[in-house]
Amino acid sequence: MTAPRFPRIALAALLLAGAAVPASAETLQDALAAAYRDNPTLTAARAGLKSTDENVDIAKASGRPTANITSAYSQYAWQNVVSPFNADKSLTTSLRATVPVYQGGTVAANIKGAEKRVEGGQFDLKSTELSVFSQVVAAYMDVIRTDAIVGLSQKNVDVLEVNLKATKDRFEVGDLTRTDVAQSEARLALARSDLKTAQSQLIAARETYIQVVGHEPVDLQPPPPLPGLPESAEAAVDIALANNPDLASARKAVEAAGFSVRAAQGARLPTLSVFTQGQHLTYLGSAPEFPGLPTGDQESVTIGAQLSLPLYQGGAPGARVRQNKAQEQQAIEHATGTERNVVAQTRSYFSSWQASNEVIESNQVAVQADALSLQGTRAENGVGTRTILDILNAEQEEFSAQVQLVTAQRNAYVAGFSLLAAMGKATAADLNFGIGPLYDPTAYYKKVRNDWNDWHDGPDPKPIAPSTVDSRPQNATVSGPVDPAGKP
C-alpha cells in the first residue's frame, strides 16, 4: 500500500520538491513546532513530570541524616509550696543528629519504586506529546478539508444559480415547464444550506486549530508525505508493542507497584539508627546557692544507637502489604488492558489508513467520470434527450464525489499519522522540526535527584502557554478559488 497523494483543495498532489513556501504561509511542521513549544496540555505534562521527579529525592530523604535543634524555656508562674532548692527559671537547648542505618528495606524499595515511576512518567510525557501532535494534525487537516468543501460548496451554488437563471429563461419562452424551475430552485436552496453548514464547520475547524496550535491558521500548505508507514498490520503491531509509550508506562507501573509491596513488608522489620546529642542547660541566674547544688550552666554530649523491633502493630502492616499487592495486581491487569488497546488501535488505524487510500483511488476515478458525465448530460439536454433533472442529478453526483474525495484524503492522512503515533514513531525527535534542541525530560531529574538542600525551592511557576483570548474570531472565507476537478 502506497501513501496517499495530497492535493491543494483535496490534498491530492504531492509537495513539489524544493518548492518555495510563501512567507505568510504555514506548513504542518510549523504548526507541530508551535504546539511543541507551548501547547498547554504538553507544558502541563512537563510540569507534572517534574513533580514526579521530586518523589525520588523525597524517598531518599528518609535514609539521610537529620539534625534538629530544640530550645525550651520554663519559669514558675505559681507554686503551692515554694522549695528553696528549685530554680525559678531555666533554658534548655539541645542539638540532636540522627543517622538511619537500617530501615527494614523500606527506603531502598521506595527509592526504586519512585525511580520506576519517573521512568513511567517520561513515557507518559511522550504519550502526551504524541496525543497533542495527533490533535494538531487532525486540526490542520480539518481546516484544509473544510476550506476545500466551502470552496466546492460555493462553486456548486454559483453553478446552480446559473442553472436556475437559464431554466427560468427557457421557461419564459415555453421551452421548459414550471416543474423544471421548481426542481432547480429546490437544488439551489439545498446547496445554499450545504454552504452554510460547510462555513460553520470551517469556522469551528479554525477555532479548534487556534485552541491546539495557539494561533490562527494562515494559508496552510499541503502536508508532506508520511514516512515510515508499515507494510502490514502485523508489522505495525510489532513496532507498537516495542515502542508505544502508554504500554511502556503501564509496564513501569507494574514494576513500581512491586517495590511498594516490598516497602510495606519492610514495616515489620527492625530499624536501627545512631545518634548524637549535645545539651546546654542554664538557670539564667535563678538557681539558689547551696553547697553541693549546681547553680551555673550545664553542658553534656551523648552518643548512642537506637534499635526498634516491632512486635505487634494492630494488623496494619499486613493490611498495607495486602493492599499494595492488590494494587500490583491492578497494575498488571491495567498493563494487559493497555496492551490490548494498543493492538486494537494499531490494527484499526492501519485498516482505516488502508481503506481511506482505496477510497481516494475510487473517488478520483469517480470525480473524473462525473465530470465527463455532467458534460455529456448538458450536451444531451441541448438536443432534448436529457431533462433538467438529469443535469441537476449529474451536478450533485459530481459535487458529492468531490466532497468524498476531500474527506477520504483527510481521513487517510490523519489515520496514517495516528498509526505512526500508536507505533511510537511520531515524536518531536522523529519529526525533526529543525527548531533547535528538544525538551529533555531527564534534565530536571538529573538536577534534583541528589539535592540535599532543604532551602532549594526552585523558581516560582509562570505561565508558558499563551492565552488565545485576544485571537480574532474566525470566519468562513476560503483561501482561494477551487477547481471542481480537484486540481491545485
Describe this structure in words.
By secondary structure, the chain is of the alpha+beta class. It has a domain at 35-61 and 105-268 and 327-448: Outer membrane efflux proteins (OEP) (Up-down Bundle). 58% of the residues lie in helices and 10% in strands. It is built from ten helices and four strands; from the N terminus they run ααββααααββαααα. It has helices spanning 28-38, 40-61, 106-172, 178-213, 233-243, 245-266, 316-382, 388-422, 428-431, 443-448; strands at 66-75, 89-102, 271-282, 298-308. It has a four-stranded antiparallel β-sheet with strand order 1-2-3-4, with no helix packed on it. Helix 3 runs antiparallel to helix 8. The longest helix has 67 residues, at 106-172. Mean pLDDT is 89; it is low at 1-20 and 483-488.
Key terms:
58% helix, four-stranded antiparallel β-sheet, 10 helices, 10% strand, 4 strands, 488 residues, alpha+beta, Outer membrane efflux proteins (OEP)
Parts with pLDDT < 50 across at least 5 consecutive residues: 1-20, 483-488
The fourth-level CATH homologous superfamily of the domain at 35-61 and 105-268 and 327-448 is Outer membrane efflux proteins (OEP)
Radius of gyration: 37 Å
Helix fraction by DSSP (H/I, runs of at least 4)? 55-70%
Named CATH topology of the domain at 35-61 and 105-268 and 327-448: Outer membrane efflux proteins (OEP)
Q: What would the average pLDDT be, to the nearest integer?
A: 89
How would you describe the shape? Answer: elongated
What's the architecture of the domain at 35-61 and 105-268 and 327-448 in CATH terms? Up-down Bundle
- The tally of beta strands, per DSSP, is 4
Strand order in the sheet with the most strands: 1-2-3-4
H and E order: HHEEHHHHEEHHHH
Main pleated sheet:
4 strands, antiparallel
SS-based class: alpha+beta
* Number of separate helices: 10
Distance between the termini: 24 Å
Approximately what portion of the residues adopt beta-strand conformation?
5-15%
* CATH hierarchy class name of the domain at 35-61 and 105-268 and 327-448: Mainly Alpha
